[in-house]
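I hope you will forgive my troubling you with a question about protein structure. The matter concerns a single protein, recorded as an amino acid sequence and a row of backbone structure tokens. Please examine both parts with care and let me know of anything in them that strikes you as inconsistent. Here, with my thanks, is the record as I have it:
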Amino acid sequence: MGMNEQEILAGLADIVNEETGLDTDDVQLDKSFTEDLDIDSLSMMTIVVNAEEKFGVKIPDDEVKNLKTVRDAVTFISSAQG
């Protein structure tokens, strides 16, 4: 059984916090990684790799550019856990 979106969000917030120092409370579903959270592509790759490990999913490189918001990432991870 996969995690629910709240658990995925919390896990993702931890990863973002470790990589960027952003407060976990700032990592909310409607936030854009680049615009709101100011995460560059290099940090994003690290976040993706860590998320793959943490959640046991594969996030293909060509999918990463589609993950504009935190919600996009949570939804993707949720469905990838299937």
